[in-house]
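Moderator note: this is an archived Q&A kept for reference. The question asked for a predicted structure of one protein chain; the sequence and the answer are reproduced below.
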Amino acid sequence: MDKRKLRSLIRQRRASIPEEERYASSIRIRETLLDQPWVQMAGLVACYWSTGAEPATHGLVFALWKHGATVILPVLREDFDLDWAVYDGPDTLTPGRFGIMEPVDARRGVDAIRTAALVIAPALAVGRSTGVRLGMGGGSYDRALARVGPNVPTVALLHQGELLDEVPAEPHDRPVRYAASPGGIVRVGAA
């Protein structure tokens, strides 16, 4: 199946998940992540502010911030690359491009993600054997993940059933190291 068809199929599935189930799943993902020592010790975390039927990150971002992590969130640039700004509480967000909430803090540049100790990325699916994530199609996170060091934990958040045996890949696609879903955290790709 090609990327476009797979994206459409997963979006349809996500839209059919009852809101209460999505909420409960997001809480399980958040709690499982917050129990990991490598998450607890991360001083600078690059995350994202979820929209629509994505696994919700609002509580995760807030919890990381309240536990003392510096959380940077993406700011979508005109060229679809990601700039980054510091989250300083729920009152410091404003709608950006496409209505996606972003911090009002000063922009830190596209390379700010290089200093993150943990990167949490959105995905529609992840390939179990490769770690390749299926994104929304703009390439924004592939460019951002290309800037992340090889030893930095990168985690894609998924709904149940979105960790697949394989995901269609192109040369520019960047893998993640972990997939987190309501069922737990799984190491993906080459060990």
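Archived answer notes: Helices lie at 3-16, 19-34, 37-40, 58-66, 140-145.
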